[in-house]
Amino acid sequence: MKKIYLFPLFFLITLFWGCRSGTKEGKMLSVTIEPQRYFLENIVGDSYKINTIVPAGVSPETYEPTPAMMMKLRESAIYFKVGFLGFENAWAENLTKNNPDVKIVNCSEGIELIYGEHHHATGKSEGEDEHVLLPDPHVWSSPKTARIFAENMYRGLITYDPQYEEIYRENFSKLIMRIDRTDSIITRLLADIPSRSFIIYHPALSYLARDYGLKQYSIEFEGKNPSPAQMKALIDIARKEGISVVFVQQGFDTKNSVVVANEIGAKVYRINPLAYEWDKEMIRIARILAGKQE
């Protein structure tokens, strides 16, 4: 009986497929937060492994990357940073200095930014810290800004990998249709609502508020819990404007949110602007504001 040697054949097939997909297989792309992974996966499909730096359920404004995470960042072909999250700039500077082959894409480029007064530590002695106008980093929280955000990711990708531009362009077009659909649904939901104002613990929906004619009031003051006087002032505003919705993000203490809600007869809703399923969460937030969420 003639013997059939399968191992060499298997080896050649494996080698063939490895060479065939060698331009992308094993390559990694890194993003800062999960909504970015949602946009990027919709564009690249399964062509690349996508690494999210900030774990789900963790605030990107307080996260400190582990050495293992920094290693993944250095191994990435492209790092897509949100743009104005404080730690990103330090990472990007270090990355550029020590790993010049890693391409860095600023996903906020071209977006009309919202500036506000934030407490900015300058390293001076107590009482000498400055208050400066800094850009609000939460640019993905509105479909209108998310459209530009996703386009920056697409353009950064095709600059790096132009060979597959046609595939990425087709996928990007489908993503834009999904973003536009989300925009249309939110516009319809918010067209006629009892109050166009809402309260949120951490001011993460500034772009949503601006783009859809809403008013956002934050419980948190300069990154800290509010004083009794600040709480009273907020409660007075809420009563005057008939606010019935109080948002609190995952990972934040609900104590002050519950106090405010009880005082004004509102309901507290937990939301997650950092959710991977970006479109579903944005629509859910709009449904809450429209009084159509159970």
Give descriptors for this structure.
294 residues; alpha/beta; Rossmann fold; 4-stranded parallel β-sheet; 10 helices; 45% helix; 16% strand
Question: What does this entry look like structurally?
Answer:
- The protein is globular and about 55 Å long.
- The chain contains ten helices and ten strands.
- The chain starts with 5 loop residues before the first helix and ends in a 5-residue tail after the last helix.
- It has helices at residues 6-20, 34-44, 67-74, 86-98, 143-160, 165-189, 206-211, 228-241, 255-264, 278-289, and strands at residues 28-31, 49-52, 78-81, 103-106, 115-120, 130-135, 197-200, 215-218, 245-249, 267-271.
- The chain has two domains: 25-107 and 139-184, Nitrogenase molybdenum iron protein domain (Rossmann fold), CATH 3.40.50.1980; 191-289, Rossmann fold.
- A four-stranded parallel β-sheet has the order 2-1-3-4, with helices on both faces. It has a four-stranded parallel β-sheet with strand order 8-7-9-10, with helices on both faces.
- It is of the alpha/beta class and 294 residues long.
